[in-house]
Amino acid sequence: MSTQAEVVQEATGREAEAGTSRQWTKYDTGWTLSLFGTAIGAGILFLPINAGAGGLWPLLIVTALIGPMTYLSHRGLSRLVCASPRTDGDSDITAVVRDYFGEGAGKLITLLYFLAIYPIVLIYGVGITNTVDSLMVNQLGMPSAPRWLLSGVLVALMMGVMIAGQRIMLLVTEWLVYPLLAILLGVTLYLIPSWQVGSLLSAPVPSAGDLAMSVWLIIPVLIFAFNFSPAISQFSVAMRGRYGTDAPAKASHVLRRTTLLLVIFAMGFVWSCVLALGPDGLAAAREANLPVLSYLANVHGSPFIGYLGPAVAIVAIMSSFFGHYLGAAEGAAGIVRGVADSRGGRLDEGMLRKAIAAFIFLTTWAAAIANPSILGLIETLAGPVIASVLYLMPMIAIRRVPALAPYRGRLSNVFVTVAGTVAVAGILLSIVR
């Protein structure tokens, strides 16, 4: 019990934080909502089906674990960036890992970081196009627009927000996340009369081995659903620029609130959907390969749910796109800088940002036109890299890097390392299966 208490104590943030970092501002709220929006992507529509597949007991266990796992892992990644001695603008994760691990390892980590995030940006281009096209045809009774035109307009709109700057991105994300929170809460409450509590409670308690296997397979799914690591680097740089030496404490404060929002709204949505569908409904939804709201709309025959499905998907894709774009652009810039440094060249940062924006726009637009069905494949291949970068790399850095020495010897480090190892192994197991 003492071990669990220590982990919970750290997860709730009982740290010696500077007084100025305790003053909550609108700027902090904007970042909290931006990080929340990065985590809640289109995968939220399939999350209840995956998370509820193992039944009641595995879902109870992962619900208790996912909050500390999310907070402590993202805090570790943020600390890695905040602890950098760099004082210039080039202090994001791609530069920091080169300082910590050396040029060779740093370049490899930067490449893996890019490859873990960039494909998801492409998929969001596909997802927003398909969702809007379906809404136009099925709900609004409009003819289907030419795919090349519709995808180009939608991707350009999302890219335009990012090019406009961080302040505009935070403002738009705030506008998007508030309705997303309202929709998730609305669906959660709307389904209460349909809850089948008895069907879950009557299910037999699984054996210890089956229970452990179910939890093992659910954890990677929840890590993806609660992952906002693509935005952590720019978030940490922003915290350093605004709060200076108080940045680690303020970042921890923001991350705690983000995690709390995710646990309340995302897991509340998951539990409500699982209880409303029951074991048979979850199995049928999985067999039909439908998002949970689409399946619920078919079962309930409710226009309310029918319209909420596309609404959640559109808002979730757009809010998550912004955070993933930050990570993809950062990774691409790190790769180009690494090549230029090795050749002794100098880069025009303004031109580099424009070139990367053009590259991401054109490739995302091309992917949206091609409409590939590779979401599951991309998530499977990117998964081990995301879990390794988010959970394991910061823990390795804490052991090796002098600047991170104050964070050594903490039980939370063991917790994150074990959780990351379990997650990576679970993802690899799911690939094999």
Please explain how this structure is put together:
With 433 residues, this protein is mainly α. It has one domain (23-432): Amino acid/polyamine transporter I. 79% of the residues lie in helices and 0% in strands. The protein has 17 helices and no strands. It has helices at residues 2-11, 26-39, 47-51, 56-82, 93-101, 103-139, 147-163, 166-190, 197-201, 208-225, 232-243, 247-288, 292-300, 303-342, 349-370, 375-400, 411-432. Helix 11 runs antiparallel to helix 12 (247-288) and helix 13 runs antiparallel to helix 14. The chain is globular. Mean pLDDT is 82; it is low at 1-19. This is Putative serine transporter. One of its GO terms (biological process) is amino acid transmembrane transport. One of its GO terms (cellular component) is plasma membrane. It is found in: Cell inner membrane. Keywords: Cell inner membrane, Cell membrane, Membrane, Transmembrane, Transmembrane helix, Transport.
Short key terms for the protein model shown above:
433 residues; mainly alpha; Amino acid/polyamine transporter I; 17 helices; 79% helix; 0% strand; globular; disordered N terminus
